[in-house]
Amino acid sequence: MKMSWRLASRLSVIILSLLVVTTVALWGLRGSNGGTAAADQNQNALQGTDLGSTPAPDFRLRDQLGKTVALSQFQGQPVVLTFLYTSCPDVCPLLAEKLHTVQLQLGKDLSKVTMLAVSIDPKGDTRVSALKFSQAHKLTTNWHYLIGTKEELSPVWNAYSIYAQPAASSTITHTQAVYIIDKQGRERVFLSEDFTTTQMAQDLKILLGE
After folding, report:
1. Dist. CA 121–CA 85, nearest whole Å
2. How much helix, strand and coil, in percent to the nearest 5, is found in the chain?
3. Of all helices (H) and strands (E), which one includes residue 68?
4. Does residue 173 sit in the same domain as residue 197?
5. pTM
6. Which of 86, 80, 106, 94 is nearest to 180 (CA)?
7. What is d(CA 114, CA 102) in angstroms, rounded to the nearest whole number?
């Protein structure tokens, strides 16, 4: 390589320089396209803990309006499934506010998504309290707050690995969990309590497009 440079004429040097500039420009363009492709790929990837598309255990409970609701009836649309109790002093109200924000972010797509909250407080969560909680957090569209007896609710807790036990006279220690289920009724991702509303909305839009 050194010999070729020593014997090269001025014209050869100029030509080689132009080739180098062109090559660098092409590599830069390629790198830019690669970055764009990677960004696009990330935008199309579900965020959260991958649950491996395991079939979501079905259940049937009554909601805040007294209507019987089964998870399986929502096949054909993504479902957000979480676990709450109406007298919760901190985490549950914050989660409910996040869910309402997600609904706003979905816009017209909200009609194609269902959100389910399963009670972890058989004694405290009644139709009245569940309805008040839902209205207070503006969760009234495609939203079901599911209640029942301990015998009705505990199998659902067990199926989704939810721990729920009274910790004091007015509080319950429980697993903070959000499952996102796809249109085929499969568990796709698990979100912890620190998820962002943008993250969930993006996941739901991806599932709507599948």
Report:
1. 6
2. 45, 20, 30
3. strand 68-70
4. yes
5. 0.78
6. 80
7. 12
Which range marks the domain in which residue 34 is found? Answer: 2-43
Please check whether residues 67 and 147 belong to one and the same domain.
yes
List the structure tokens of 61: 């409970």
* Spatial distance between the Cα atoms of 143 and 14, rounded to a whole number of angstroms: 70
Residue 45 DSSP symbol: S
With contact defined as beta carbons under 8 Å apart, do 83 and 120 qualify?
yes
User: Do 186 and 82 reside in the same domain of the chain?
Assistant: yes
Which one-letter DSSP state was computed for residue 82? E
Residue pair 127/66 in contact (Cβ under 8 Å)? The answer is: yes
Q: Determine the residue type at 116.
A: L
Question: Could you report the per-residue pLDDT of 160-189, keeping only the tens digit for each?
Answer: 999 888 766 677 877 889 999 999 999 999
Where does the pLDDT of residue 207 fall: very low under 50, low under 70, confident under 90, or very high at 90 and above? Answer: very high
Which class for 68: exposed (0-12), middle (13-18), buried (19 or more C-beta within 10 A)? Answer: exposed
Q: How many domains does the chain have?
A: 2
